[in-house]
Design brief:
5 helices; mainly alpha; Four Helix Bundle (Hemerythrin (Met), subunit A)
Length: about 190
């Protein structure tokens, strides 16, 4: 009698676990790639009340910015990998660490300047009233761009860029690790 009860309890627990996993796995919502960028674009279009011509110009600017940024981001990743590959070498000199960190900074600076130029172009197509509104909301946009993304669920992580190893062999990006707390952006 005890064995039958135990068997039924184990089966019941297995079914409950399978149902829970299926619920979370199948019930998750996938965000399309670039949702954050689309949301920022839509926000700016709405807040600045861009007309059809301005929206068309802005769409072209967004495409150009994405293409250029997509060329810089892998360079940042490579520079960071080169910096942290120095950990494999015993007794790395400070000058070597600084040179590797400088390469990360150079690439990050290029991306920041590209983004600055992008927003400068957007502001230039605005009329004076839109420019005032732009000036009022740009810090909010920049602040949201710098926010860490929420942690991803299993299966949500994008695949590795071409030529890289499997995702599960890489550490989580900064801000996505368990228990990782980030300070608020400056000025808050």
């Amino acid at each position: 009698m005890k064995n039958k009860l135990l068997t039924w309890l184990v089966v019941l627990l297995l079914v409950a676990n399978a149902a829970t996993i299926a619920f979370f796995w199948l019930g998750r919502t996938k965000q399309p790639p670039g949702l954050q960028g689309s949301a920022a674009r839509d926000f700016l279009v709405k807040e600045l009340n861009l007309d059809a011509k301005q929206q068309e110009q802005f769409s072209e600017m967004v495409k150009e910015h994405r293409n250029s940024a997509d060329q810089i981001r892998p360079q940042i990743r490579k520079a960071k990998e080169a910096l942290f590959d120095l950990l494999k070498q015993p007794g790395v000199s400070d000058s070597l660490k600084l040179a590797a960190a400088k390469q990360v900074s150079v690439q990050t600076e290029a991306l920041d300047l590209l983004t600055f130029d992008h927003f400068q172009k957007l502001r230039s197509i605005c009329n004076p009233a839109q420019q005032q509104k732009f000036d009022a909301v740009i810090h909010d946009i920049i602040r949201t761009m710098g926010q860490p993304r929420p942690p991803m669920r299993p299966g949500d992580r994008p695949g590795p860029p071409s030529g890289e190893g499997p995702v599960e062999n890489r550490p989580p990006p900064s801000g996505e690790g368990p228990g990782e707390n980030r300070p608020p952006p400056p000025g808050e």
